[in-house]
Automatic annotation (TrEMBL):
One of its GO terms (biological process) is ribosomal large subunit assembly. Ribosomal protein P0 is the functional equivalent of E.coli protein L10. This is Large ribosomal subunit protein uL10-like insertion domain-containing protein. Residues 61-123 form the Large ribosomal subunit protein uL10-like insertion domain. Belongs to the universal ribosomal protein uL10 family. Pfam families: Ribosomal_L10, RL10P_insert. P0 forms a pentameric complex by interaction with dimers of P1 and P2. It comes from Solanum pinnatisectum. SUPFAM superfamilies: Ribosomal protein L10-like (SSF160369). Keywords: Ribonucleoprotein, Ribosomal protein. GO terms for cellular component: cytosolic large ribosomal subunit. The lineage of its organism: Eukaryota, Viridiplantae, Streptophyta, Embryophyta, Tracheophyta. GO terms for molecular function: large ribosomal subunit rRNA binding; structural constituent of ribosome. The keyword Ribosomal protein applies.
Amino acid sequence: MGKNTMMKRSVRIHAESTGNDAFLNLIPLLVGNVGLIFTKGDLKEIKEEVAKYKVGAPACVGLVAPVDVIVPPGNTGLDPTQTSFFQVLNIPTKINRGTVEIITTVELIKKGDKVGPSEAALLIKTWNKAFLYGLLVISVYDNGSVFNLVEKYAVGVTMMTTLSLAISYPTLAAAPHMIVSSYKNVLCVSLETEYTYPQAQQVKEYLKTEDTKKEEEAEFEEDDAMFGLFDD
């Protein structure tokens, strides 16, 4: 880990000294908060080992919560002058031995919600490191080639979905496409026959309305053509 400019410079120097320009493929990846791990071991084991290490951090204002934040009941260690702060957040409290105590469990922030100023301030006051942060493997470099893990995964899912649809074998990835295709077939049968069901009936009524509009437009155009014969 280090400054991106220094890491890029180190990569360039190594490429020049070894005459191996393949290392230059690493430079476009050194953007943002990233680092390099050098290994000759099994990549799966390295990834699992890296994922073990996470550190807690307080929630920052404007950050989207990756998990639900639950404040458990108990003594906060804050003095009674802080009770108004808890009241703003609708957190029930009581004074116990000269400190503020939270009475019940409170769901402070829901997953996907943005952290507000009051919520962030409360977590800081109570020393609550709500979110865990760790390293995430985003790319793999090997012999001059860079492999994007997300892209590789997406390609694999696409190939599996295509194969599943071709042989009509249901899989988790292909199931939504199969359901939509089956629904379209059922809908087509309903539109061509008198058999109907609530969803198909809505489509039939819509198509009937569209056909009526087209007929009215056609009649209007014919009338215009007839009147045009008597113009100058």
